[in-house]
Amino acid sequence: QALGVAPGEMAIGTVTRLHDSKGNSYLVDAAALVVKERPNAKFFLVGEGPLLGDLQAQARALGLGDRFVFHGFARDVAAVVSAFDVSVFPSLWEGTPLTVFEALAMGKPILATDADGLLDVLTDDRDAVIVPKRDAAALAGGIVRLIDDPPLRARLGAEARRTSQQYDIAA
Fold first, then answer.
1. CA–CA dist 26, 169 (Å, integer)
2. Nearest 5°: CA angle at 18, between 12 and 19?
3. 60-105: pLDDT as tens digits
4. Of 122, 142, 143, 152, which cross-links 128 as Cys (Cβ 3.0–4.6 Å)?
C-alpha cells in the first residue's frame, strides 16, 4: 500500500544504484515489453544515482507512465523488497549485491542476469530465473514467465530461503 501497489497488480522491482553496471536501462526496456502483455505489471526502481534523469526520460519515451515508478532512496530496504512479487537484478557486471541476500532471506522469487557476482550466489531454476545480461527481451520473458506461473514463484521463493541459510551471519 505504501508503494502504491493496487490489488491485482504484480510488483516487480529492484533496489539498486542508478549506474551503468546495474543494467537498469534494460529493465526499463523490458518493462515496456511486459506491460504490453501483462498490463497489471507495475515496476519499481528504488535507488539514486547519476542515471536517474536518463532512465526517467527513457521510461517517458516508452510511454510507461505510472507502470514504472522511480521511488528514489529507501531507508528501509527490507520494507520495500517485501512489497515486491518479483525481485529483479538486471546487472551487467556486479560484485555480489547485498540486496540479493535480502531477497533470498525474504523468500522472494528472483529474476537475475548471468552477471558473475549474481551467479556466485544464485542458481538458475533452483532459487532464481537467470537470463542473459544486456537482453531486455530475455528479462521481459523471464518476468512474464514468473507473473504467469504462481507455483514457480512459490518454489523459487522457498528455495531462495534455503539458499539464504548458507549466507546467514552465523554461518
1. 33
2. 125
3. 999 999 999 999 899 899 999 999 999 999 999 988 888 999 999 9
4. 122
What does 6-28 look like in DSSP terms, one character per residue? PTTPEEEEEE---SGGGTHHHHH
Name the pTM for this structure: 0.95
List phi, psi (to 5°) of 121. -115, -35
What does the chain come to in residues?
171
The whole-angstrom separation of Cα 118 and Cα 150 is: 23
For the record, the C-alpha cell of 124 comes out as: 538458475
Q: Give the Cα separation of 127 and 145 in Å (integer).
A: 15
Buried b (16+ CB within 10 A) or exposed e, 20-46: eebbbbbbbbbbbbbbeebeebbbbbb
